[in-house]
Amino acid sequence: MNDYVIRVLSSPSDVSPQAWNALLATEAEPSPFMRHEYLSALHESGSATPASGWMPQFVTLWRGKQLQAACPLYIKDHSYGEYVFDWAWANAYEQHGLAYYPKAVVAVPFTPVPGTRLLARDAQSRTLLVQGLVALCKQEELSSLHLLFGADEDIAACTESGLMLRNTVQFHWTNAHYADFDSFLASLSHDKRKKIRQERRKVADAGVSFRWSRGADISKADWDFFYRCYERTYREHGNPPYLTRDFFRRMADTMPEAWLLFIAERNGKPMASSLIALSTQPDQPLVAYGRYWGALERVDCLHFEACYYQPLAWCIEHGAKRFEGGAQGEHKMARALMPVKTTSAHWLAHPSFADAVERFLEREGAGIENYMDHLGERSPFKAA
Cys-Cys with 125: which of 48, 69, 86, 254 at CB 3.0–4.6 Å? Predict the structure, then answer.
């Protein structure tokens, strides 16, 4: 690497926010979740910390005094909060008396949103960063390295460095310059159009209405109410929430422009909410990301209205290019969110397990291709 130097930092606060965000701003897919403020809030709020199994090891590549490349790296002793599932790999290691944990993950904790993971000034720096990550894993005797939901440039650098690739499927909506929600509905087949209208009518007939707030206009009371809903949804599924109330307080303080909040009300009282993230680069098209939701009362089809129809109507009105619906969820196709392949990259230290995983990924990859073909035959749009 000659005059390049790798430095491993124990906290995002150890790297300049300005330098980090300047690298992010040059990327083709700069999601708000890779902003220094977002990553710092995860750490400082107690959401992604060593105590919760996320040991931060932010890796930076320097040339002299200039930051050339950087990425968030976490050393983990579990696989929760990742959304690219490797439990079977961990079980196979255990069955053979080998330790799968700790492992290394390049990811945004709890955030399965595709985008740049390796911030870099150029392709060479990005590849050197990947090579530095693999060298660090070998030095620390970690079982594996996993880069999750990477951008094309990340995947190219990982491929060049010999990592294995894995695809999963998400569902994204693309704005075809619709004039309004009705024109969007008109693009769908009759049965899908009818179903959406029926679902929306059920919510309206239940006396539920919506209001939205964006950025600094989201009040503390609305943030508090949202967190009640968010926390309750996790508790109902038997788990504590990944993110603390303090995390969202920091979001309101440090990057309010990245958030759009929908509040559902009935009889003048709030009863459900959904929180949408927004892209924040002024020179990039507006992109919306479905993130969190929760309800204090049960109403048929309320989830679809809060998490899809209200956000899609907002995206049409405000000219958003895309709405990403989050991980998994084949049911999203009925709401015109179409399948998109996402990619992760993996390196395993153990040669025999690496060979076995590579063979598994070949079979799984063929299955993903067949799945995508199958989904393509079920388009919700009118036939051309």
Answer: 69
Residue 112 sits at the vertex; the CA angle it makes with 111 and 113, to the nearest 5 degrees, is: 95
pLDDT in tens, 219-255: 999 999 999 999 999 999 888 999 999 999 999 999 9
So what's the pLDDT on residue 384?
67
Are β-strands 338-348 and 164-174 bridged in parallel, bridged antiparallel, or unpaired?
antiparallel
Return all residues near 373 (Cβ < 8 A) that are at least 6 apart.
none
pLDDT at residue 328 above 80?
no
| Residue 247 neighbours by CB under 8 Å, 6+ apart | 41, 42, 45, 47
Distance of CA 379 to the CA centre of its chain: 24
CA distance 35 to 202: 39
Distance between CA atoms of residues 77 and 100, nearest Å: 8
Are 116 and 284 in contact by the 8 Å Cβ rule? The answer is no
Percent of the chain with pLDDT over 90: 93
Phi, psi values for residue 282, rounded to 5°: -65, -25
Burial of residue 361, with CB atoms counted within 10 A of its CB: 0-12 exposed, 13-18 middle, 19 or more buried: middle
In the three-class reduction of DSSP (H, G, I as helix; E, B as strand; rest coil), residue 147 is classed as strand
Classified as helix, coil or strand, 212 is strand
CA distances from 125 to 19, 60, 106, 112, 226 (A): 15, 10, 16, 25, 41
Q: Which two tokens stand for residue 263?
A: 């509040």
d(CA 25, CA 312): 26
Residue 94, CA atoms < 13 Å, CB-side half-sphere: 9
Say whether 22 sits in a helix, a strand or coil: helix
CA distances from 53 to 37, 123, 242, 249, 293 (A): 21, 31, 11, 22, 24
DSSP result, 152-173 = HHHHHHHHHTT-EEEEEEEEEE
Closest CA to 157 of 133, 182, 138: 133
Task: Give 80's DSSP letter.
Answer: T
| pLDDT the model gives residue 329 | 84
